[in-house]
Design a protein that fits this description.
163 residues; alpha+beta; Pnp Oxidase, Chain A; 6-stranded antiparallel β-barrel; 31% helix
Length: 163
């Protein structure tokens, strides 16, 4: 394995079938700790969301994309990612951590509006390229053709008042 193609093969192996294997789960735990502690760039954060089955807090490392003055989370693994299912079950309520905790509400973006966010995400998270079948430098029309396969959530502030 050499160069970028070797890394992409490794990424695909770690997430075979759209699910992280043991190695990927271990590396994700380490990344989540680093991101939460602020030991990575500010766009690398840890997403905490209540598990849909256990009710316990589950943490995932995420890369925050920016587009049009808004911030977004993108699922590089598509619909089957656990964090996507958990966010939907929690009605978008979650926390982002990078040195401190911030309560957020994640609002799912309509597939018709996802393409520019997907492109911005791949530019910020080139490691995700192994899972997205469009090159990060591709025309927007190419992203439009796959946008329905990759959930995107806009990061907003939670509504004020009791939960």
């Amino acid at each position: 394995m050499s160069g970028a193609s070797g890394l992409h093969r490794l990424d695909r192996w770690m997430y075979g079938g759209g699910r992280p294997n043991r190695v990927a789960r271990l590396l994700n735990r380490i990344a989540a700790i680093q991101y939460a502690a602020g030991l990575a760039p500010g766009y690398c954060m840890t997403l905490d969301v209540r598990g849909r089955r256990t009710g316990r807090r589950v943490s995932f490392p995420v890369v925050v994309a920016e587009h049009g003055g808004e911030r977004y989370l993108v699922s590089m693994l598509g619909e089957r990612a656990n964090w996507v299912r958990n966010v939907r079950a929690a009605d978008g309520r979650a926390e982002l951590r990078h040195r401190s905790r911030t309560e957020v509400r994640l609002v799912e973006v309509d597939p018709a509006d996802r393409a520019p966010v997907l492109r911005a995400y791949l530019r910020r998270a080139p490691g995700a390229q192994a899972h997205v079948p469009v090159d990060r430098h591709a025309r927007l029309e190419e992203f439009e053709g796959i946008a329905h396969r990759f959930p995107v959530f806009r990061i907003t502030q939670p509504p004020a008042g009791p939960a």
